[in-house]
Amino acid sequence: MQAEEKLTYETWPAAPERATLEAKNKFLGFWLFLGGETVLFSSLFATYLALKDKVPDTSQPLAKDLFELPLTLVATMLLLTSSLTSVYAMYHMKNFAFKKMMLWLGVTVLLGLGFLGLEVYEFNMYVHEGHKFTSSAFGSAFYSLVGFHGAHVTFGLGWILALMIRNYKRGLNLYNAPKFYVASLYWHFIDVVWVFIFTVVYLMGMVG
Amino acid sequence: MSTIAQKKGFGAVLWDYLTTVDHKKIAHLYLIAGGLFFIMGGIEAVLIRIQLAVPNNDFVSAGAFNEIITMHGTTMIFLAAMPLLFAFMNAVMPLQIGARDVAFPFVNALGFWLFFFGGLFLNLSWFLGGAPDAGWTSYASLSLHSKGHGIDFYVLGLQIAGLGTLIGGINFLVTIINMRAPGMTYMRMPLFTWTTFVASAMILFAFPPLTVGLTLMMFDRLFGANFFDVTMGGNTIIWEHLFWVFGHPEVYILILPAFGIFSEIFSTFSRKRLFGYSSMVFATVLIGFLGFMVWAHHMFTTGLGPVANAIFAVATMAIGVPTGIKIFNWLFTMWGGSVKFTTPMYYAFAFIPSFVMGGVTGVMVATAAADYQYHDTYFVVAHFHYVIVGGVVLALLAGTHYWWPKMFGTMLNETLGKITFWLFFIGFHLTFFIQHFLGLWGMPRRVFTFLPGQGLDAGNLISSVGAAFMSAGVMILLINIVVTQVKNVKVGNDPWGDGRTLEWAIASPPPYYNFKQLPLVRGLDAYWLEKMEGKKGMTPAEPIGDIHMPNSSFIPFMITLGLFIAAFGAMYHVNDKPWAIPLLIFGLAVTFGSMLVRSFKDDHGYHIHKEELTQDEKGAKA
Ligand SMILES: [Cu+2]
Q: Given this model, what pLDDT does residue B622 score?
């Protein structure tokens, strides 16, 4: 099958994300890339665990003084829901329902923006409580781990938005279907990383 | 479009190479850039040996010596050995599996430019206030206190170059998994392809820890973070772990492809199937796996405790088993073969005892208790030069002679090749053998001078004389290259006459689409099988048809240029330069903007039509 072909609902393949050789390569390459990203975040998690609550003096806040469940729980729910909506988007992509796919991608982006807003609010709050990037090793490790994730969310949002704008007028074909698919894979990965951050940083942080 | 080379102006050739996405041209770029960095690292080595030739020498200052040893190690590992291996991987691996290109030609070009600009950035440190001086391992306790921007050049330069290596690794993995010709099963892949595969998988999992380590170091030095600052709650050991979690696998990332090169050479010039092919594959995978669980053997004296030391010591020694399997398989490949002593075979033959010596001292330094004595002495310097030079560099020189005709269509002179070999081989053992004893006699690593009358004078002088021999060998190789290219005598498909794998089934250098028809692979040593049945070439697996090709692109260069500019911004931001942050933002904007252009502009590539392919053939015959 050719990437440029104009397709209809009837001729649209069952797995459009792997229908051409280019798409197959992209699909596999991206999974491998996520493997590398997993190691990247593992290293950051290990660093965080080694430096958790390591502060120069007692005036600095520790994890148990900082984190609050309601705020992070809302953020977690937003991001988890956005993963679900991106699944809906891919479901419609496989059914050649371009408009519906765009709609659900739009919802995904909005939820992601909500998450990002909460994160900015949260970071701002911590800084006012004296927990800064430069104030302690704990601060450096916390903002690096959570901030790296935040940067991934930002990049993911930019990516999905760029795909939506670029393909707004032309609909689905086998050239852009793998692109949408891979972007949604990325979004799921970010979500999985957040589940670990929520557990390791926030839940384990609150129990001390 | 014709495959017959047309005379082009310098500008056109330059533009061609700046925008190319062809794996064969990218291989040329890797070979040239890696070769230049190899010469720079070699000059640094010579400076080290001049300084240490006699006691109390003041050829260079102590500070300059630290910069030179740091740049020698960093350059040789990251900017010479890796890219030179990548040159062969790019030139040969796609041909060996019968592919028309790699899976991601665009990413392939991007990987090269990232490596090149990273290396350029690192080396600009010489002109911009001084090179890094905390050793190639750049331990945080040293590097945080290093004045000037040397360490920042190291951190940012390696970050950029490392990204290139990472995406290169992913590209090779996907290529090998998805792009093999019909009939090329995994267990029919040549050993060089197998080792490329395993080394690429190791790159994928070993480089991210380095990325993180370098990022943390950058945050500490340039953005006020405290990861390694003990007074702020930090921990300097974290750097050591992150560095060696990368650093040890890196050693195998280098040596496995070297094993692959030698496996091809042994089998070709013994004119015999590689002995124990499946056990070779098994040993390669096992080494790749074990390579990830031994990193702390570099940290025996850090104080991780006897239990950790014991576990890492045993794991390290276990690697000796698959490596031993390989050594015996190479010996048995030659056994009963009809061995032809060409230049590549000289290197392969010399590699076995040289590398085994490095392996033996490897088991010695892996013994944790004894390592307290060897640690940070010249014994360790001797050990790792025996594995890296005796293994990797010999393989690179062998590979250069072996695949030169395939990459450039000309044959290097065999006599000059053998002279290079003898000079280099003698020089290598002269330089490093005595260093084992210098270490045992108490000479510490990384000292810029030593006192007379301590029993170290003669040993150091011998070592320095050896360095002169190695330099002479490399110079002869350069002369050989120039002479060969000036004479420009073209060779055929299989210039050694004994080629076994698919790269020898097509023209030297291959046409830009590699295979007019994808070959049908009927077993291991696919081309040899066909030759033994009296056929001239491979049986095609498809009729002649249109070939899909990727378009050239300048975007990889631009993406990298942006990062290169951004790195300067990040670095000078600590000096409170008002233009630093804007420069950083501008650089990142160039990078992300270029990525956006790539995303927005459809690139479907183009097709070579079947009529052109058949015309080419007529043209070549006429
Ligand atoms: Cu090691």
A: 39
| Shortest CA gap A27–chain B (Å) | 9
**What is the B249 CA–ligand 1 centroid distance (Å)?**
7
- Which 8-state DSSP code applies to residue B498? -
> Rounded to an integer, what is the distance from CA B338 to the centroid of its chain?
31
B513 has pLDDT over 50: yes
Maximal C-alpha separation, chain A = 68
For B88, residues 6+ apart whose C-beta sits below 8 A from its C-beta are: B27, B192, B257, B261, B399, B403
Q: Does A51 touch chain B (CB under 8 A)?
A: yes
Determine which helix (DSSP H) or strand (DSSP E) holds B53, and give its type and residue range: none
Q: Structural domains in chain A?
A: 67-129+141-208 (1.20.120.80)
Q: Is B219's Cβ below 8 Å from some Cβ in A?
A: yes
Task: Check whether B6 has a pLDDT greater than 90.
Answer: no
CATH 1.20.210.10 fits B10-553, yes or no: yes
Burial tier of B113 (Cβ tally within 10 Å: 0-12, 13-18, 19+) = buried
Q: What is the pLDDT of residue B9?
A: 82
CB-CB neighbours of B45 under 10 Å: 21
In which element (H, E) is residue B548 found?
strand B547-549
Reported pTM: 0.95
| DSSP-based helix, strand, coil % in chain B, nearest 5 | 70, 0, 30
Tens digit of each residue's pLDDT (9 = 90 or more) over B293-314 = 999 999 999 999 999 999 999 9
Contact predicate A53/A62, CB 8 Å: yes
When CB atoms are compared, the residue of A43, A144, A162 closest to B242 is A43
Q: Rounded to an integer, what distance in angstroms lies between the CA atom of residue B573 and that of residue B370? A: 46
